[in-house]
Every structure is written in structure tokens, then in C-alpha cells.
Design goal:
The protein is α+β, with helices and mostly antiparallel strands and about 280 residues long. The chain is built from eight helices and ten strands. It has a four-stranded antiparallel beta sheet. A hairpin with a 5-residue loop joins strand 6 (about 95-100) and strand 7. The relative contact order is 0.15. The protein binds a DNA duplex (16 and 16 nucleotides) through loops.
Length: about 280
DNA sequence: ACGAGGTCCTGCGAGC
DNA sequence: TGCTCGCAGGACCTCG
């Protein structure tokens, strides 16, 4: 499920191959992923547009176009962005949501099985207001413990839910929130405002480390996530709690616990180490 | 202002 | 074996 490290991997894979390409004959097969724009208008604005560069913001892959527009993909649970060498096979076309020529015979395809993901096309102003509503990037060098404290201290919500709130911090989802809290030895259900300075500092370090490690591993493939080259990530073998309910804690051996009480999402944690 | 809960969407695994 | 049901989840919405 693409969170920050997965989208970062996709963008790093695609950026050198897409920069400078011109979009041709775009097609949109499913419209329910579009936000704030009709299929017809999006197709008109994409056809012939040139990609200036490809970047990441939070969990979004952003194609910046010469026109000043940005084509913004949010892969959600099951979305992927892939380049295919020529005509799509039936299997490649299955679940394709958007496809476009990018020069030569190559096709760029956004594929999404469950279509929880979204696609936007924003002009400069639209992008400015969109990105302003998203919190700071946790892998940015400027993101320090003071910044983290400022972003989370105002909420009495469970710290795990707060970490996943994109308005507060960008790019963190269920997997990396769970992993960071385990590394920092913090109970995921603790109210965010109750964290003291030492805990906030541990969480800050854990968050940076887990995201950096996951980027180095090219992300976590549990099921649908694919890198920009169609491969799998490898961080799933390094997960310490996510998806490991009932297995022994790597630190103390206690069977890992599972709850759905936070945000109705599965949360796995060690009740002994994280308290 | 904040928090809780429902909704979208489809594939898959559990259970009968 | 073949069916139904519920779950997975991020973001957004409504309601209290």
C-alpha cells in the first residue's frame, strides 16, 4: 500500500524516464478516480503536454507539466504507475485506469485494482492550496523533533492516528506509523498530547529511520504495490510488527497484540515493550 | 473545534 | 465444490 517510501521509489524509478516526455493519446478507462475534473477536460489538458519533472509530495506522485499543471496520482491501496514498452497486453490493460503515450511506443499506465486511489489535475493555484493543506515531509532535513512536537502536541487523539493524519505529517500510513511506534517503544493508543520530550525525540528518530530504511529497501510489498519498474519492494521482510500479530516480539518474545480500536484500522504492537 | 463513524471499491480468504 | 460474507484501507464526508 503506497505510503511515502513506496511513492518515493515509484518517483525515483519514473523520473529519469518521464522527464521531457510528451504525452500523447491519453485514455481514461475509469472516471471514478478523478477528483475535481471531468474526463473530457483532463484529456484535453493532457494531450500533447510535456512532462517537466516527476516529484513526490506526501503519498502523491506528481507529474509537473510545462503548462504549469500538475497531474497528481494518489495510489491509495492498490494503485501503481508503470511504463510498458508497447501495446498493452490484456493483463496489462486489466485494471488500467489511465494510459497515455509518452514518446516512441512506450505507454505510461496508472493501474488500480480497488480504485481507492485518486487522480487530480491542478493548476498552479490549485496545487498551492492543495499542498498547503498537507503537513511537512518527515524525511526532510528540516523536520526536527521540535517540528514533530508542534505537529502532534495539539491533539488528544491516539498518537498512531495523529501520525497518519496528512494535515499534520505527510506520507505516513498504517504500516510506517505502526513500525515507528514500535521502534520508539510508544503505545499506539497514547494520546498524542501526553507524549513527553524524550518520547517525542524517540518517535522523531524512529520515524526518520523507518522511512529511510524503507526507501532503501524500495518499499513494502504486501500485495499490490509495485515499484516504478514493476518489481516488488523488500521492506516486508524487515517489518517488526505490521502483519505480525501473534508472532513473537523481536525485542522481548511476547506474542504481538492486535487491536482495531484505533481508527478502525488494524494496529499490531507489543503490549510489553510499548507502554 | 473536535471526534466518531460511514462511504467508496474490488479481490480474496474464511466459513458454511 | 460453490456460494456468501466480511475485511482490507486513505481520504473525505456527515453528524453530534
Amino acid at each position: 500500500m503506497p505510503e511515502l517510501p513506496e511513492v518515493e521509489t515509484i518517483v525515483r524509478d519514473l523520473a529519469p524516464r518521464l522527464a521531457g516526455s510528451r504525452l500523447s493519446s491519453p485514455r481514461i478507462h475509469k472516471t471514478d478516480v478523478l477528483r475535481g475534473i471531468s474526463r473530457g477536460r483532463m484529456l484535453r489538458l493532457l494531450d500533447g503536454a510535456r512532462i517537466r519533472c516527476v516529484t513526490r509530495r506526501a503519498k502523491h506522485a506528481v507529474l509537473e507539466l510545462d503548462s504549469g499543471h500538475r497531474l497528481v496520482f494518489q495510489p491509495g491501496m492498490t494503485g501503481s504507475l508503470l511504463i510498458y514498452p508497447g501495446r498493452l497486453t490484456a493483463e496489462q490493460r486489466r485494471y488500467a485506469v489511465l494510459e497515455t503515450g509518452i514518446g516512441g511506443r512506450e505507454k505510461l499506465v496508472y493501474r488500480d485494482v480497488r480504485r481507492i486511489g485518486t487522480i487530480r489535475l491542478l493548476d498552479e493555484r490549485g496545487w498551492a492550496s492543495y499542498t498547503d493543506r498537507i503537513g511537512p515531509e518527515p524525511v526532510d532535513p528540516d523536520f526536527d523533533p521540535v517540528e514533530l512536537a508542534a505537529r502532534i502536541s495539539g491533539s488528544r487523539q491516539a498518537i498512531k492516528k495523529v501520525l497518519m493524519d496528512q494535515r499534520r505529517i505527510a506520507g505516513v500510513g498504517n504500516i510506517y506509523a505502526s513500525e515507528a511506534l514500535f521502534r520508539a517503544r510508544i503505545d499506539p493508543s497514547r494520546p498524542a498530547s501526553h507524549l513527553g520530550t524524550p518520547e517525542t525525540e524517540r518517535l522523531h528518530r524512529a520515524l526518520k529511520e523507518v522511512l529511510t530504511d524503507a526507501i532503501a529497501a524500495r518499499g513494502t510489498t504486501v500485495r499490490d504495490y509495485r515499484t516504478g519498474t514493476g518489481g516488488s519492494g523488500s521492506f516486508q521482510s524487515l517489518l517488526q510488527v505490521y502483519g505480525r500479530a501473534g508472532e513473537p516480539c523481536v525485542r522481548c518474545g511476547t506474542p504481538l497484540a492486535e487491536t482495531h480500536a484505533i481508527d478502525a484500522r488494524q494496529t499490531v504492537f507489543c503490549w510489553r515493550c510499548q507502554s
